[in-house]
Input
Amino acid sequence: MISTTQAVGVDLSQMSRRVSTFVELTKPRLVSMILITTSAGFYIASPQTLNWMQLICAIIGTGLSAAGVLALNQYLERDLDARMVRTCHRPLPDQRIRPTAALFFGVLLTGGGLLYLTFFVNPLSALVTSAIVVTYLFVYTPLKQKTSLCTVAGAFPGALPPVIGWVAARGTLNIEAGVLFAILFLWQLPHSLSIACIYRDEYAQAGFRLLPVIHPDGRSTNRQIVINCLGLLVVALLPTLIGIAGIVYFYAALILGIIFLGFGVNLSISRSMIAAKRLLYASLIYLPCVFLIMALDKVT
Output
């Protein structure tokens, strides 16, 4: 009896570790950020009465697709991840999961998410999500080893989650959805470049052609960061000007944008690792704050 109980305990422990490994493959924290902006887009686009069932369905479909795409990205970059300290312990380079299993898992989640969006939300939300799948896996991922423009290419799929939320609620694309896209697009560039600055040596070792790797003196990287922070400062005010959000959001976005720009300028002046980390942390605070305040102060 004791040996049987111990065997069951071992099996459950192994199963738990297996499940944990597959969950890790989906990058849960990144999926959470995607779902936050998707939900914000849905809420902002909704009338006074929120369709909770539609929102839940949009979250499920988007979450499945996002998790699948991120798993497939790790499958495609498994050899490159093995070359970097920050990624060498991921499930594939650490050999905790077989590549074929990761591929099947990623395809299953991505396909399931797209089908779920098509039948339980609307076809347009599935189409926008399909654009993320194609551009992230087949444009952004291979471009990392070819050109510094990969950062711009990666900002496109990364800026689409709030658009998914918008079309899930409205069933149509319009200028308001474009403004949400533009805010997230411009935010991603300083966010991604700050990460590239912090891990420049590891990216260089792995063969990624990011801007800080190509131009290690940092001038071109810092120039791009400041330009995009300045652009974000202006574009983030548009929701009030086009009638999505109220005046409280306008002043909050203005203050947050000035602070974020200040971190970008600080990095441009000091060119230090500490300044790059501060900009990264500031970006992680800026985005949820902007979307939360926009949602709270939306014009109904």
User: Anything to note?
Assistant: The domain at 9-172 is CATH 1.10.357.140 (Tetracycline Repressor; domain 2). The chain is about 80% helix and 0% strand.
